[in-house]
Amino acid sequence: MRKTLLFFIFLLSALSCLAQRNNLDFYISHALKNSPLLKDYQNQMASNSIDSLLLKATYKPQVNASSTNFYAPTINGIGYDQVITNGGGYNALVTVSKSITDSKKVAAQLATIQLQNEGIKNTSTISEQDLKKSITAQYIITFGDIQQLNFNKEVLTLLKEEEQLLKAFTEKNVYRQTDYLTFLVILQQQELLLKQVNIQYQNDYATLNYLCGINDTSKVNLPTPAIELQPLPQISNSIFLKQFDIQSLKLANSKALVDLIYRPKASVYIDAGYNSTLTYQPYKNFGTSFGISVSVPIYDGKQRKMQYDKLTFAEKTTTDYKNFFINQYNQQIAQLTQQLLSTEGLILEINKQIKYSESLIIAERKLLQTGDLRVADFVIAINNYLNAKNLLTQNTINRLQIINQINYWNR
């Protein structure tokens, strides 16, 4: 008894884990985990972090060692002029150099990398939303297939039960042979429809696994997706609008970089080592030198103004895209909200029709069992019930899809 109880506890636990394993969150988490695109964005941000370190390293003192050695022999009075070559030259130097850089230039260059990271991060978040929307949409489709499959199984069971009864009445001449054959055709059509729905479910479920990067061909009964309408943020806080703000910041930073090109540049250096021609007291030719270089731009053909003009046009383009997006966003949200309200109202009406259809079928089944109903009337009632249930499933799925589309904008 105890072993049996433990077995049932284990079985229930396994079923619970299986149900949890195959819910919508399960597929979304696998899709996000397996997405190479999201991994690519993560790698790009990690690479940009290294670029920041590389930039900082270029402004630190640079230490280099160098050695240049040559010998210019004169043989029988033939060779390079000794006044020029001194017969050769030998040096080994260690040089330390450092650019004298304006802190604004460093900050602007670091800001460029930071804004690149912000753009990649925002694009990654949008791609994540795209993936969630895609997986949720496919999950809803597959869930709808299962609903259709289960419903058609119930109808087929109902028809098979009535087929046995109708067959018995036909043998007793209560119903005509043609009535029985008509009903049998309807039964066979339902069997074919069930097979068709099952094939559609298998294809849609395979597509769901494919999108998530899951290698699984087993059949599962997907639970109802926990999809609720989420409140939308202020559009100014939306990640979809943020991409335009980041682009504007990039353009402003580009202007700052253009200005920095026209600031004076300076660098200092110092070296120490050995530099000699070995012609006179070479042991005394150890020494050092130091210097500074300065560059001041004077005229470049008005390139600065032209760069400014290009950036101004880019800013105008960004503003146009931003305004167009805001208009489309408001229009789309209003349209989806209206569709959702209309669909929910239609679902209420369909549910009322289904109740009437179910009541009619129950009443006609009783009449069919007593031979007081035409088979054609019963078939019509079954078809009306089928159409109403199919319409309910379609609109229920449509409602979930609309909510999924609205929720896409909730970040």
UniProtKB/TrEMBL annotation:
Q: Which UniProt keywords apply?
A: Signal
PROSITE patterns recorded: PROKAR_LIPOPROTEIN (PS51257)
Q: Which domain of life is it from?
A: Bacteria
One GO molecular-function annotation for this sequence?
A: efflux transmembrane transporter activity
Span of the secretion signal? Answer: 1-19
Protein's name according to its UniProt entry? Outer membrane protein TolC
According to the entry, what is the taxonomic lineage of the organism? Bacteria, Pseudomonadati, Bacteroidota, Sphingobacteriia, Sphingobacteriales
